[in-house]
């Protein structure tokens, strides 16, 4: 009852931007606050009234609707937005008079109102986030409005039938703000250029399939019916024949060939070209939005002054003592303490610090198994007769007999196929299920049937507010999660693409679905996201550039270390029959398999290796993949030749790839000439107008 007395003046005597004679269905509300129904005189009720009183003093119009919860619609006065327009008018349009300002966009209204709500302080020195923690308010959100642009997005963007059509980025910007629009613009551009990488990867994969049965190396493996291999474990594992791995050998050659090297180089160049072209695309887009030189600090200061004339800026801070202490501790906790030395001042800075930490953690979480398989598995386990053992007893795991690149190929296939599919299903089904459950729990069927047409006609806002409240909650890092998912996918697509040429194709198909899943989720299942202004994708661009460098290093290491490409090339040009000069009609890889297997005497096994007695009597020697002498198991000359060739290839590959990346970055300007000329013409016209006005005033 006391709430009604408090709110009555606001509804009966609206402030300047309200029209008391407007029809009910034309009521517009900037934000909704939701609260539980508390007992009269309770602490939570008093705190709620104090917060609403502060909004009232700032000229906000407030409307209350009671259902199972208390809903408060708030609308800001027009003078707030006029101040915003005047303070942040474009420097290039400084000749514009304050009374000439046009109506602010809905996204700006929501962003400014959200800022004021979050920074309004009660007499108890509490802000909205403090009241949310104390359950004074349960939820806050802007409304999905029943307007033409929303219906357009629902019909022409958040539909599966639009999957191959261009996104309406301008409409997305007008409804969700620039930050969301830039995410979808980046995702669309990334998906578009993925199409070219997907085609190249498919060609390389198909070319590998055509040589499935024709590889000399795989033929030798399939025909090695008498080559006995050493056991793969300690506890009475059997000896086995090399020919048992025939199928895996063919699969290995399908992905481990000369085409893979060229494709890895292509993807390194593609990653650079993609980023450079995105910079150009971003410059064009934000210039059309008049945000190329937008200053976040300036906007934050302006909104702070609009909210409170006594507002003081939060200055940048740096403590040398704190930094010194952190540098001393960095050796112990490098990953955790990185970035804490500076206190972030703005939301973007906090988001950037959070992004670097979370991405670093997610990167090592997702890539630890791939890194282990690619560069450590089977390379630190020793050799028969001298295995590296944990606690002196248990042998380390070995690669598949056909090579470690097969294991890497299988893991990448699982990640790009199964993980992405499950991730998309969970990303859509979980919000959908939560929305359905919340909808049925908060508005039971019996309750909905009791709501008659007269009640709905009495208060048209009620249905809209309730339907928005029943949608899934959106937090400030919702867009961060979408970016993180795509950047992790970008990492998989580029860093280990040498082991899985189909990665770009699968990423391309996934992204076609991802765009529509995100659109449907944001338009139909979630509350409206608070629009945020931005003129780039922030710290994610630096993350993508770092991934581009890692892609060069990673693919170079995969080809040099994991793949058999280098050993085969060394054999062809130094040890094969072709080096004799008289056997030009013989395949140069003939004899490679026998040459790459070392001989081990069964009697030299360690005590931990339990070989069956009958096998020990019948088998005197077995073979294993390595380059060691048969007498003392020391490395052969061929091992050092291959080692030198691996190192030389790695250095050459990375230097060539990085040089090409630098050339591509230099060759493709970040800002198109048309954008530069547009700014130049705009400055010229403004200066001409100023000069004309000055001459006119002088004559008068």
Structural summary, described in words:
Helices cover 59% and strands 6% of the residues. The protein is an alpha+beta fold and 700 residues long. The protein has three domains: 2-143, no CATH class; 177-296 and 363-442 and 476-502 and 537-568 and 588-643 and 657-669, no CATH class; 673-700. The chain has a four-stranded antiparallel β-sheet, with helices on both faces. Strands 5-6 form a two-stranded antiparallel ribbon. Strand 9 and strand 10 form a beta hairpin.
What keyword list fits this structure?
single chain, 700 residues, alpha+beta, 3 domains, 4-stranded antiparallel beta sheet, 27 helices, elongated
Query: Which runs of at least 5 residues are low in confidence (pLDDT < 50)?
Result: 1-25, 91-101, 337-342, 445-457
Distance between the termini: 64 Å
Number of strands: 12
Q: Give the percentage of residues in beta strands.
A: 5-15%
The chain-level structural class is alpha+beta
Biggest beta sheet summary: 4 strands, antiparallel
| Rounded radius of gyration (Å) | 33 Å
Share of residues in helices: 55-70%
The number of distinct structural domains comes to 3
User: What's the arrangement of strands in the largest beta sheet?
Assistant: 2-3-1-4
